[in-house]
């Protein structure tokens, strides 16, 4: 028989019983050490030598149950989780319950059948090995989780750095935004920049996935929008250029939805172009909500996007809203996901500022979701034309 390399401690105050049992276990291939009472057993256990203990219940000074309790209370997890098989001369239920409550993994009644004891030792050693493997896997998972958290923290700092820190100063207009990632970082991003001709580009995008990978894609998105705005003039041309850059990098393997507004402040007019993105919502002064739908497929799917655009005038007191699908990602009472038509109902009427418009919209979303965390990232940008003060 192949000898075991894991040491077993046999504790019994009867020299004869201990010697006979130790000999039988040794003949069965086990490496056995012996001691005669509880205090001596605890001292040996503290040395870290045994992996399993066969412990007699009836001993002077300390019973086997008391020794077991002391082992289970040890601060060292390796000692506290040592397999313990109790030997008892009483086959009654009360004694068995006491042994198990003390923390024994198994028990064998006397006179001991060495074949049964050997089988139970084998079983406990296998279970102990499996538990050790599980602990190692859990430790590795925890190490991975901590590394992942550090990656997410770094990605969060990066994403916070590329999001605009303040609203743009556009005479006669107000812009406000809200960003709410599902975890530390998300796949949503928005930005605005003043074009050389004095007009403004305001855009939003939603990349696939969450986490660090999505955050990296949003970083790329900001770069390609910046590049496109230097070479293009219309909203549709900007999306075409962005799509070309994304496709050249990923060749259709990654994609995102996006929409942009070209704002001409002096004309009180916006030009909208969307690629697989939720429709632009315009809250009108009469209380109605106009929708301008995206007409192009997702960015990065095709080499040639062929973007189109639509225009609209924004009157005083009206607001246009760019947003990601996180705005309506919750479900209704019938477990049906909401739609952009439902999202239109979230929009406030007669908001006095872009900031109020965003705040009231998000409050309505949270009320619908009963303040349960949303299942997706949420980003929204409001472009508001305030009413002029009357004298």
Q: Can you describe this structure?
A:
The longest helix is centred in the middle third of the chain and has 49 residues, at 114-162. Strand 7 (188-194) and strand 8 (200-207) form a beta hairpin. Helix 7 (212-231) crosses helix 8. The protein is elongated. The protein is an alpha/beta fold. It folds into two domains: 7-135, Response regulator (Rossmann fold, 3-Layer(aba) Sandwich), CATH 3.40.50.2300; 163-385, 4-Layer Sandwich (Phosphatase 2c, domain 1), CATH 3.60.40. Helix content is 38%, strand content 23%. The protein has helices at residues 15-27, 38-46, 64-72, 77-80, 93-102, 114-162, 212-231, 235-250, 340-344, 354-368; strands at residues 7-11, 31-35, 52-56, 84-88, 106-109, 174-180, 188-194, 200-207, 256-264, 269-275, 280-283, 289-292, 310-313, 318-323, 378-385.
Quick structural gist:
The protein contains ten helices and 15 strands.
Any chance you could write out the topology, listing elements then pairs?
Elements: E1 7-11, H1 15-27, E2 31-35, H2 38-46, E3 52-56, H3 64-72, H4 77-80, E4 84-88, H5 93-102, E5 106-109, H6 114-162, E6 174-180, E7 188-194, E8 200-207, H7 212-231, H8 235-250, E9 256-264, E10 269-275, E11 280-283, E12 289-292, E13 310-313, E14 318-323, H9 340-344, H10 354-368, E15 378-385
Helix pairs in contact: 2-3, 6-7, 7-8
